[in-house]
Amino acid sequence: MVISDSAVIVEVVAAIIIRSDGRFLLARRPEGKPYSGYWEFPGGKVEAGESLLHALKRELQEELGMQMLHADPWMTRIFTYTHATVRLHFFRVTDWHGGLWARENQRLSWQSPHDIEVEPVLPANAPIIQALQLPSIYAITQATALGIDAALTRIEDALQRGLRMIQIREKEMSREALRTFSGEVIKRAHAYGAKVLINGDGVFSRETDADGVHFSSSQLMALSCRPEQGLCGASCHNTEELHHAAQLNLDFIVLSPVFPTLSHPGSPALGWQKFAALIRDYSLPVYALGGLRQEDLATAQELGAHGIAMMRGT
Q: Taking each helix axis from N to C terminus, what angle separates 239-248 and 271-279, rounded to the nearest 10 degrees?
């Protein structure tokens, strides 16, 4: 959304309060407020001189009577309503003290990102709910290195353990072998409700009934608009690529390499500090990639990532 230079942007914090079962809290705006009757994530305006975390703690105490104990930064998006332009700083809140009750006459409802049962939802929150449907782990295949049978066994095991999104990335595999392998992965994944993306080939993605396509950074920079391709992800390595992916409004990006990797031994690694700086206030879900394992997920999310992508750690 294009915002004029003269537009006054109101800074707002919003909490994705997530229970252990994955459901999150929505609140219905009471009468007397703009967009009364609409459902939204709890939160409110940041006061002058107030940090984002302090504002979030204060708002949650005022609205819900809860003491926030842990929150991770997530996405930041700008949205223009009829009455204001707001910059929404979303945080995922996973630990708190005290019960939740409506202190401002709002209604509360726990919702699943895959089955929203209340309406209407504030327009700014539609892409947020869509992003919440993305799992925290994004696996990348390596059947060429492992062998197809071993790779399929590993994928089946990971699906049984909860893996829900896979990228098929086999650049050295013949077209015929890739079609057979992809068909097997997609069949197994869909049996568990998991999504499969094809690396770099939108035509092949449609032919195989995959759920979307994952673009390389060079393919990303050649795009002038978002393809109609189901899920669309892309690999990014710098600010320019991140900016272009956001302009295209892709579903997510993968930022790499966080650490040195066997597949790209000569590529300079970002490290966690630069990774966090690159995605600060970013508008799309970000997966960290490069030398990571499952135990790195908490660190990645504390720094603002949606999750982690792995080739060898699944």
A: 40
